[in-house]
Write a structure and sequence with these properties.
The chain is of the alpha/beta class and about 450 residues long. It contains 13 helices and 21 strands. It folds into 3 domains: about 200 residues, FAD/NAD(P)-binding domain; about 110 residues, 3-Layer(bba) Sandwich (FAD/NAD(P)-binding domain), CATH 3.50.50.60; about 110 residues, Enolase-like, domain 1, CATH 3.30.390.
C-alpha cells in the first residue's frame, strides 16, 4: 500500500495551483486539490478577468464621444449595471467550470474545503477529514488588505465586493495608489460615476517609471477623475445620505461607496504553517528558493502567496516549473527578470524592464529616449489626450533595459516589445526595424534623439 493518500496535494485552485496540479497529474502522480471558494482563484473569479470585462464596459462612453468627431450621430445611451453584472457572472461561472473540467480530465481530485496543514505531510480539510501527501504545494494567492483599526471600516468595500455591487453608485471614493485602485477609478469614472481617487503618497503607481506615473495621473484627471494625493482616511462615517470620508487633513468627502484598494497581502491565515514548520519572510509571505521550495523539504509554494511578482502569468509559470522539476525530473527555474506588466487604467499602461531611476542606480550611465504626442485618432477628434513612450538604454552596451508606454493599446504593444528586450536587443537593432505606418507603435522605432531634461542639460 502507498505510504500517503496522494503523491501531491495542492492547497489553492487558482492559476498557479491548477497548472501545477494538472501537469503533475498528467505525469501519472496521484494529485489532490483543495479550494475553499471557487476554482479559478483571484484572476478568474475576483481579479483580472472580471475586471477586464468592466474595463471594456467602461470604455464605451469614451468611444461614443470620439465617434461623434468622426461623423457618427450618437443617440441616447444608457448603461444597465444589473444586466452587465449578470452576464459577467455567467461568463465567470463558465470559465471556472473549464478549470474544474481540466483538473478532472487530468486525473486530479478536487475537494471544496478550507485546507490546513497539521504537519509536513498531513492536511486537514474542513468537513472532509484529513489526507496525507508525499509532497504539498501551497498556492493560496493573496487577498485585499485594509487598515484593521480604521473607524468605520465596516462601511467600506474592497475590490472583491466591487464586482458584486447591487447597483452602480453615483459617487465613489477610492483609496489607494496602486494598479487596482487606478484601474477601478477608470472603470467607475467611465461608467459615469463621480470618482475621487485618494492616495497618501506624492504620486500614483509606486514602482513604475516616474514619467509614467506623472503622465498617467495627468491623463486620468483629463478624463474627469479627481486625483487627491498626500491624503488618507482618518475614519468613515455613515450618514442618512451615504458615506463621509473624513481625511487626516480635515477634508471631508461625501460618496455612496468607499472602496479601499490599499494593496494585497499573502493569504496564509489558517494554513497551519507553524504546525508544518514552514517559514515566512518579513512581509508575511511564504519564503521559497529559486525552485519555489520552502524550508520544509517536501513543501513548495507558488504565486502571490510568495509575494515575488504577483501576476497571473508568473504564477502559472512558477506552477509549471515546479511540476517540471518535481514530477518530470527536469529542474526548471522561472526567470523573474524582464517580466512585462500592464495597468488597464484609462489610458492604459504597458511596462517591461527597469525604470529610469532603477537603471541609473544599477547600471550607472543610461540613455533615455522619450516621446509625448497626441495619437492620430485623437488629433483628428480634437481631443487633448497624449501618449508617452520611453526607452531606457544602458549607455555602455546600448542594450534596451526598459520600455514604458501610456496610451491606447499599450498592453498589447508591450507584449511584443518584451520579447525583444528579454532577448537583449540593442538600440541599433531596435532602430533597424522598419516602422508600421500609420500606427501609434511606430514611435517605438523612430526615436533617435536622446532625451535630456532641462535641469540636466548642463551636466549632459
Amino acid at each position: 500500500m502507498a505510504k500517503y493518500d496522494y503523491d501531491l496535494f495542492v492547497i489553492g485552485a487558482g492559476s498557479g495551483g491548477v497548472r501545477a496540479a494538472r501537469l503533475a497529474a498528467m505525469s501519472g502522480a496521484r494529485v489532490g486539490v483543495a479550494e475553499e471558494h471557487r476554482v479559478g482563484g483571484t484572476c478568474v473569479i475576483r481579479g483580472c478577468v472580471p475586471k477586464k470585462f468592466m474595463v471594456y464596459a467602461s470604455e464605451f462612453a469614451h468611444h461614443f464621444k470620439t465617434a461623434e468627431s468622426y461623423g457618427w450621430s450618437i443617440g441616447e445611451s444608457r448603461f444597465d449595471w444589473p444586466a452587465f453584472i449578470a452576464d459577467k457572472d455567467k461568463e465567470i461561472a463558465r470559465l471556472s467550470g473549464i478549470y474544474v473540467t481540466n483538473l478532472q480530465n487530468a486525473g486530479a481530485e478536487l475537494v471544496h474545503a478550507k485546507a490546513r496543514l497539521t504537519d509536513a505531510h498531513t492536511v486537514a480539510l474542513e468537513g472532509h477529514g484529513q489526507v496525507t501527501a508525499d509532497k504539498i504545494l501551497i498556492a493560496t494567492g493573496g487577498r485585499p488588505w485594509s487598515p484593521p483599526e480604521l473607524p468605520g471600516l465596516e462601511h467600506t468595500i474592497s475590490s472583491n465586493e466591487a464586482f458584486h455591487l447591487a447597483q452602480l453608485p453615483k459617487r465613489i471614493v477610492i483609496a489607494g495608489g496602486g494598479y487596482i485602485a487606478v484601474e477601478f477609478a477608470g472603470i467607475f469614472n467611465g461608467l459615469g460615476v463621480d470618482t475621487t481617487l485618494v492616495h497618501r503618497g506624492p504620486n500614483l503607481l509606486r514602482g513604475f517609471d516616474d514619467n509614467v506615473r506623472a503622465h498617467a495621473a495627468e491623463e486620468m484627471e483629463k478624463r474627469g477623475i479627481k486625483v487627491v494625493l498626500g491624503c488618507q482616511h482618518a475614519r468613515v462615517e455613515k450618514t442618512a445620505s451615504g458615506l463621509v470620508s473624513h481625511m487626516v487633513s480635515g477634508q471631508a468627502l461625501e460618496s455612496d461607496v468607499v472602496m479601499f484598494a490599499l494593496g494585497r497581502e499573502p493569504y496564509v491565515e489558517g494554513l497551519g504553517l507553524e504546525a508544518a514548520g514552514v517559514a515566512v519572510n518579513e512581509k508575511g509571505a511564504i519564503a521559497v528558493d529559486d525552485y519555489s521550495r520552502t524550508n520544509v523539504e517536501n513543501i513548495w509554494a507558488v504565486g502571490d502567496v510568495t509575494d515575488r511578482i504577483n501576476l497571473t502569468p508568473v504564477a502559472i509559470r512558477e506552477g509549471a516549473a515546479f511540476a517540471e522539476t518535481v514530477f518530470y525530473d527536469r529542474p526548471t527555474r522561472f526567470d523573474h527578470d524582464m517580466v512585462a506588466s500592464a495597468v488597464f487604467s484609462q489610458p492604459p499602461i504597458g511596462s517591461v524592464g527597469m525604470s529610469e531611476a532603477d537603471a541609473r542606480h544599477a547600471l550607472g550611465k543610461v540613455d533615455i529616449y522619450l516621446s509625448r504626442f497626441r495619437p492620430m485618432k485623437y488629433t483628428f477628434a480634437g481631443a487633448d489626450e497624449r501618449c508617452l513612450i520611453k526607452l531606457v538604454v544602458e549607455a555602455s552596451s546600448q542594450k534596451i533595459v526598459g520600455c514604458h508606454m501610456v496610451g491606447p493599446d499599450a498592453p498589447e504593444i508591450i507584449q511584443m516589445a518584451a520579447v525583444a528586450i528579454k532577448m537583449g536587443v540593442t538600440k541599433s537593432q531596435w532602430d533597424s526595424t522598419c516602422a508600421v505606418h500609420p500606427t501609434l507603435a511606430e514611435e517605438l522605432v523612430t526615436m533617435r534623439e536622446k532625451f535630456v531634461p532641462a535641469d540636466l542639460g548642463a551636466v549632459a
